[in-house]
Q: What sequence folds into this?
């Protein structure tokens, strides 16, 4: 079957008042009878999603509902599972990834040692 994306179901305030919860449809990514997995298609679609902004910046005729961004980050903190993620804007991808993704993970490991 063709790859599909999860549909959003509901957004509601977290019961402890610390933020919101975003509930999405579950997509079964397990192996199918053909032995094929949808992981490769997931990777391709995720890459396409992340290249959307770069394509807007490179293509003067590209159409979009929102303007492209020229930095890496996000306006609010997010979470990866239960781990909060700092999304402060950075001018380049290596700096963003090193400071906002790798360093917090390494700090957590160091704190446990």
A:
């Amino acid at each position: 079957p063709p790859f599909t994306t999860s549909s959003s179901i509901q957004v509601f305030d977290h019961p402890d008042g610390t933020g919101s919860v975003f509930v999405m449809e579950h997509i079964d990514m397990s192996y199918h009878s053909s032995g094929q997995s949808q992981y490769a298609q997931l990777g391709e679609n995720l890459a396409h999603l992340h290249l959307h902004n770069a394509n807007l910046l490179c293509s003067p005729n590209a159409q979009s509902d929102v303007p492209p961004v020229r930095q890496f980050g996000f306006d609010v903190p997010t979470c990866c599972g239960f781990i909060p993620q700092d999304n402060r804007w950075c001018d380049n991808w290596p700096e963003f990834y090193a400071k906002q993704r790798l360093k917090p993970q390494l700090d957590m490991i160091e704190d446990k040692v």
About this structure: The beta strands are 8-13, 20-24, 78-80, 83-85. The longest strand covers residues 8-13. The longest helix spans residues 39-58. The chain has a mean pLDDT of 82.
